[in-house]
Design a protein that fits this description.
The chain has a single domain, classed as Rossmann fold. Helices cover about 30% and strands about 30% of the residues. The chain contains seven helices and ten strands. It starts with a strand and ends with a helix.
């Protein structure tokens, strides 16, 4: 499975979110999509999810153009809260299970316990951190070919981010899933990345294979990001 961006441009009015951009994501790898806010990270994920279409160029999965029908193959954690406020945590789990045939209730139960969420609590009463945990539960409970995480640790207490990142590895299907994590917080995810792209002003400014970067250049992803200087 390959996701391919080929000379993709996306405009919102006169503003370019992506500018003649080409890159690809391969099956069985965890990618970091790195860059500041407004760099084009979220637009890239929305295109893979079929929620946004390019003005020019092609976005394909397995050589087929991506459309909204891709939803059955993609689990997408948006940076926005997309909840029914009156639902309880359990109610939101049931709703997702009714909408996605690939939703794994048993995995959701394990994740709820791991994230230490109260299933009886209404979403409108959850803290920002617990809302973030619930978003991760919902995204990771689906059995999909592609997992898209847009700023997945936003709002989480820095003291628990590391343990949550390490715990998430238990719920990723290595070898079968493509995982793309868009973030400007690199420290938390560096240890789990296979490859990373730097995106800035809608253009790819750098690409690395993380293990080669460490072994051949002696650099961490954060050091490489600073060295690349965007």
């Amino acid at each position: 499975m390959v996701i391919h961006f080929e000379n993709v441009t996306k405009k919102y009015g006169n503003e370019k979110a992506l500018s003649n951009t080409s890159f690809l994501f391969e099956k069985g790898k965890i990618y970091g999509l790195l860059g500041p806010n407004g760099s084009g990270k979220s637009t890239t994920l929305k295109m893979i999810a079929g929620l946004v279409l390019p003005n020019s160029g092609n976005v394909t999965m397995n050589n087929e153009r991506i459309t909204r029908k891709i939803a059955s193959k993609v689990s997408y954690l948006t940076e926005l809260d997309m909840f029914y406020e009156a639902f309880t945590v359990e109610g939101m789990i049931r709703f997702y299970a009714s909408q996605f045939i690939d939703f794994d209730r048993e995995r959701a139960k394990e994740l709820i316990a791991f994230m230490k969420l109260d299933t009886s609590k209404k979403i409108k009463h959850l803290s920002k951190g617990n809302r973030g945990r619930l978003k991760l539960v919902l995204a990771l409970s689906r059995n999909t070919e592609v997992l898209l995480l847009d700023e997945p640790f936003s709002g989480l207490d820095p003291m628990v981010r590391d343990s949550i990142v390490r715990g998430l590895l238990s719920y990723i299907d290595f070898g079968n899933q493509t995982v793309i994590i868009a973030t400007h917080e690199i420290d938390e995810i560096e240890a789990i990345l296979d490859e990373a792209y730097i995106i800035h002003d809608g253009e790819i400014k750098g690409h690395c294979r993380v293990e080669e970067l460490r072994e051949e250049e002696g650099l961490s992803v954060l050091q490489w990001l600073k060295k690349t200087a965007i």
